[in-house]
Amino acid sequence: MYWYNGKLISSNTLEIPVDEPGLLYGATVFTTLRVYHQSLAHPLTNWQAHCDRLRYSIETFGWRLPNWEQIAQGAMNLIPHFPVLRITIFPDGCELILGRTLPEDLTNKQKYGVQAWVAAEFARSLPTHKTGNYLSAWLAKLAAQQHSAEEAILVDEQGNWLETSTGNLWGWRDNCWWTPPLTAGILPGVARSQLLEWIKHYCRVQEEPWFADAVDTFEAIAYSNSVVEVIPIHTVIEQHGEVIQKTYDPYHSSLKLLRQLYVA
User: Fold this and answer.
1) pLDDT digits over 11-50, tens only?
2) Residue 48's domain spans which residues?
3) Are residues 42 and 116 in the same domain?
4) Among the residues of 33-173, which ranges form H helices?
5) Phi-psi region of 37 (alpha: psi -120 to 50; beta: other; left: phi over 0)
């Protein structure tokens, strides 16, 4: 079941023109959100922020604006069936909304953390926009799995850590949370924005580049996105001729502050 161009469709296939730019070039923008309590109005769902991010990219690219009321209608039709929605917009303004379940092992990952691999050879296209050309991030995560890791960490040309293949990074040291700045060339995550505003009420937070020699100073690190919320990273694998493992505390008390945002 999915929603496409104003219609609810019960099928596992989608018919689109063979010359559709979204098919040929990945020319789409999308956002993925978790719907809390089956409500678009719930603060944690943050519906308007997801729509605003889509609008920003669409206007930047000069594409046709979609029918926002139609998108909301499609989301409402799928909410009773799926806790997670992915909204894709094509250059002509057509919308495609897919639903899915939460990851089966999400609770364990949130509790115990995951292992990550530094994917030095992969870089996202147009990193400040969430476009359908997500091949490099997808390949980075596949490569990470070949190194027994669940996530990939993307870096810039100098080796500075930017973000994971699916989320934004957080690090704790000196009684302060640190996250890479948007100017580094990362996705402006909706969950990242929510967490920034939340953290500022309780402790210091700094948006600074994660230089290669600074990541060793963090006591705890985690990544966030709108679906998984906050997941600690307990081990990071790097390869510079030899394999290097960095370890962090997935049970660090500072992580409680990030998680408290999602206590609904």
Assistant:
1) 999 999 999 999 999 999 999 999 999 999 999 999 999 9
2) 2-100
3) no
4) 47-61, 68-78, 106-112, 135-146
5) left
At 30, which CATH number? 3.30.470.10
Residues 123 and 253 in one domain: yes
**Is residue 247 located within the same domain as residue 157?**
yes
What token pair was written down for 130?
Answer: 């969430």
Both structure tokens of 167 = 């989320």
152: closest CA among 237, 217, 225?
A: 237
DSSP 191-235: HHHHHHHHHTTTSEEEE--B-TTTGGG-SEEEEEETTTEEEEEEE
How many domains does the structure of the chain reveal? 2
Coil vs helix vs strand at 180: coil
Helix or strand holding residue 29 (H, E): strand 29-34
Model pTM score: 0.94
Whether 232 and 164 share a structural domain: yes
The structure tokens listed for 166 are: 């699916």
Q: What is the pLDDT of residues 154-178, one digit of tens each?
A: 999 999 999 999 999 999 999 999 9
CA 145, CA 108: separation in Å to the nearest integer?
17
With vertex at residue 151, the alpha carbon angle to CA 145 and CA 155, rounded to the nearest 5 degrees, is: 110
Cβ neighbours of 264 (radius 10 Å): 8
| Helix residue ranges, H only, 66-105 | 68-78
